[in-house]
Amino acid sequence: MYNFLNMRKGKILTILFALALASCKTNPAAPNDLNYMQNIEKVAIEASSRNSVNTIQTGDQLVILITAKDADVVKPFNQNYASSEVIQNNSFAGGNTPTQGNTTISGPTYTVDSGGDIDFPILGKINTTGKTLVELKDELRNKMTRFVMEPTVNVRLANFKITVLGEVNRQGDYTVANGQATILNALGLAGDLTMYGKRDDILIIRTEDGNITHGKVNIQDANLINSPYYHLKQGDAIIVSANNTKDLTAKQNPNTALYLTGISIAVTAIAVVISLFKK
Fold first, then answer.
1. What is the pTM of this model?
2. Three-class secondary structure of residue 276 per DSSP
């Protein structure tokens, strides 16, 4: 009887030991799956400037401030504006290393209407369709020279917003003060992907000129830089799907821990019985 129990104990312990080793085994591919832009040294950066240019869209809120040496001269062009008026946004510094904080954008705000126009003091209607912020700024400066010597024109986009959803640490809407952002900026603002986020299949939904398009990017591949979705546009939504690990975790039997506890108790009981037979 003792030998029988001793053999059974040995088999059970061997099986449990094997299961423990299997559960602790790491996937050799896992570390690489978490690295971004893995082949950056081998990729020729071919991104054209057209991929990074954002044109003004219907509904954009443009902050336009005109300044000059004689402040009184430009007051009519900054009508209904007081220095106390500011728009606060969550923003980040330029480059691919974002820092979250508050910044202020001050100046009169103009909303682009359905026809692409803004109604500017004295100058009248200004059409913005297909223009970048820089192009609008140059146009306004040229028109202003008829009334003001050496005017300075500042144009900012107050409502450049992006949305990040899914397997990131901070989901939500983010406003970008400088009107420029890349997919890496956006993920940085959202606190990066969780360990369950798919890094090779990130969906971006874009609405531009009333048209909805979508594309997918792989942030593990440095060719991401050449994607038209690398540079984000106003209103882009970034959606990070869950990977297989998250799916398996979600499907795991919630009673697994109880089963393992039961097995452990059973093994302990067998060991106790065997020790009693030894006596």
1. 0.63
2. helix
